[in-house]
Design brief:
Order of helices and strands: HEEEEEEEEE
Distance between the termini: 35 Å
Helix content: 10-25%
Strand content: over 45%
Largest sheet: 9 strands, mixed
Number of helices: 1
Structural class: mainly beta
């Protein structure tokens, strides 16, 4: 058990070690991943994102596009079904990003429908994602 905890802790630190330090003149948007899902940064204002693990933007208004992959549980599909993987894009608009602030973008799903919410540092919802298309993967 201790070996598992130590290994998990080291893997977590290794993953975080690769992120750059946030630029205090920009806003930083963390992507909250859940178990068995994947959330990736794709675009800022229709321009390809440099790193798929986070967004860093100038203060002001921006539209973020993310890729969210998740499994639709068999109970939402029908009897004797296998989980169905969905690959979706969502757009999140927010007009008041502030320099030096950290935001968190979280995604989830209800059945086949994905959702995304943007939170500020006080955990207040400041933006909602709009679906921009899904495929089965």
């Amino acid at each position: 058990m201790r070996v598992l905890m130590l290994t998990s802790g080291l893997l977590l630190l290794t993953g975080c070690a690769g992120l750059p330090d946030p630029d205090p003149s920009q806003a930083w948007i963390d992507l909250g991943n859940r178990q068995d899902t994947a959330l990736q940064a794709l675009e800022v204002d229709a321009k390809t994102s440099v790193d798929h693990r986070y967004f860093q933007v100038q203060p002001g208004s921006h539209e973020l596009t993310v890729r969210y992959q998740f499994a639709v549980e068999p109970g939402n599909i029908g009897p004797n079904a296998e989980p169905l993987w969905r690959d979706c894009r969502l757009n999140v608009k927010f007009k008041d990003f502030n320099a030096g602030q950290r935001y968190q973008l979280q995604a989830g799903s209800i059945g086949f429908r994905p959702w995304a919410k943007l939170y500020d540092q006080q955990r207040k919802v400041v933006g909602q994602g709009m679906p921009a298309g899904c495929q089965q993967s």
